[in-house]
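Look at one such:
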Amino acid sequence: MMLPSTIPIFPLPNVVLFPSVFLPLHVFEPRYRQMLADALSGDRIIGMVLLKNERDLVEEPPPVYGIGCAGLISHAERLPDGRSNIILRGIERFRIVLEVGGRPYRRAQIASLPEADSDRIRDQLPRLRARLDPLLAGQFDDAKWRRMVPADMGDGDLVNTLAQYLDLEPVEKQALLEQNDVAGRSRALIDLIEMHAFAARTGGLGPQ
C-alpha cells in the first residue's frame, strides 16, 4: 500500500508503532477526534510518532522524532461521549520531511521508508530467531505468548511484535524502529534484551 505524501501525525510520549503490528488506542482530545473523523472519511491512515523527552526545551508544537510508522485504522468504535477506541495496523515506516498546517491536529509531508529486503537479510532471520527464543523464556505466560505470537507467525512479524510489546523504554523502541531492515532490528533487539537481563542480574550497576 502506497502512503500518501501528506498524512496526519499522532504524537505520543510512550508509543512506537511497528510495521504489521496492531496497536489499540483511545482517542479523546477534540483535535484528535477531528483527526480521526477526517481519516475515517478518507484513506484511514494515521502516522504515529514519538514525542521527544526534552524537558528543558519549550517549543510549540513539541518536537518529535523524525521517523515514525503509518498505521491503517482497521477498527473504530465511537463511544457515546464522543471519544473513540481504535485499532491501527502498522503499514510502513516514514520520515517527516516538513510539517504542514491547515488542521487543528498536526500533519506532515513524508517520505516512505520501506523495509530493506534481500536474500541475505531473509537468510539471517531464522538464525536470529533461534537466538531470540531462549532470551524470551519466562518473560510471558504461555497463554499470553500464544496470543501475541501464533505458531505460524513469520520471523519478521515476530521481531516487530516483540519490539512493540516488550517492556522497553520508548527511546529504545524508537531506535529499533529506525533500523533499516528487520535483521538489523532483530540484532539490536537481542542486544537490548541481553543488556536488560545483565542489568537485572547485577542490580543495574555498571563498571565503576
Q: What stands out?
A: DSSP finds six helices and six strands in the chain. The mean pLDDT is 85. Residues 6-113 form a domain with the Archaeosine Trna-guanine Transglycosylase; Chain: A, domain 4 fold (CATH 2.30.130.40).
